[in-house]
Amino acid sequence: MQITKEQRVDETSAMIDDIEVREDPRASEIVLETRDLDVYYGAFRAVRDVGLRIRANEITAMIGPSGCGKSTVLRCFNRMNDLIESARVEGEVRYHDVDLYGDKIDAVEVRRRIGMVFQKPNPFPKSIFDNVAYGPRVAGQRRGLDDLVERSLQRAALWDEVKDRLKDSALGLSGGQQQRLCIARALAVDPDVLLMDEPCSALDPIATGRIEELMQEIKHDYTIVIVTHNMQQAARVSDRTAFFTAEVNEESDRRTGLLVEYDRTQNIFSNPSDGRTEAYVTGRFG
Question: Which of 44, 92, 129, 276 allows an S-S link to 35, with CB 3.0 to 4.6 Å?
């Protein structure tokens, strides 16, 4: 018998909700975990043997040179790689110990609980209000949108700047404001985890500073995982840092990413246990 989309969503919610009820919240420290994670694009293995444990209400940064698989791993956490036809994920990705790639798990519901902010601000060509209200409306919410939009914009530290022009196009905002709007849009569907893929790479230093302040403000309510090419940013904002590197196939010149070291950020930058990490953070390669 074929399982409908609605049944998958219900089963996904029920499985996760049941875990949240049964567990002692104080002991529920690990939110996301990968075990022996490999990611393939066709026959090519892009990432291999990644084991990570992401803890609740912390900011976890992923750093490393280009082509080391940081963004690929990040997209595994909310099944964005499903949208790439040739992509294949092996190993385990678990959310509150639920296998996110299990047969009965609905990817759309996963993406509601695990939101994502992309490298380049991508507001919809709609009003500021409609951008934030878009996700709740798709989910069927029709009442209380005014309060929800205000609350989401406040959480994204944007409300005071836009409260008098909610009907204006979001495309008229500055780059930094657009990125905070995208964060508000992600928060509007009440996620548990927020993934951020180089969210400041297209922003000026002032806007970057505001986004970093915002991450610190909201981590008490959300678990945040950020991919960044900026080591100083990782050192400033994150509690833990994962350093990835890439193995180069000499015959094909293709790169396979792997996790080298994962530890508290202070240790990664001041006392790394692997020589490859030390070489990267001190600027000797990368």
Answer: 92
Report the distance separating Cα 138 and Cα 174, nearest Å: 26
Residue 205: count other Cβ atoms within 10 Å of its Cβ: 8
Contact 68, 259 (CB under 8 A): no
CATH code assigned to 5-122+191-281: 3.40.50.300
pLDDT at 94 over 90: yes
Q: Residue type at 36?
A: D
Cα torsion angle, 17, 29, 136, 81, sign: negative
CA distance 187 to 116: 9
Residue 31 CA from chain centroid, whole number: 12
Q: Would you state the structure tokens that stand for residue 271, as one six-digit string? A: 């006392």
DSSP label of 127: B
Distance, first Cα to last Cα, the chain: 51
pLDDT tens digits along 185-207: 999 999 999 999 999 988 889 98
Residue 19: predicted pLDDT? 42
Q: What pLDDT score does 163 carry?
A: 96
DSSP per-residue string spanning 41-63: ETTEEEEEEEEEEEETT-EEEEE
pTM for the whole structure: 0.85
* Maximum separation of any 2 CA atoms in the chain, in Å: 59
Nearest to 228 by CA among 213, 210, 217, 242: 242
User: From CA 67, how far away is CA 47, in angstroms rounded?
Assistant: 10
Residue with tokens 């690990």: 30
Residue 216: enclosing H or E segment and its boundaries?
helix 205-218
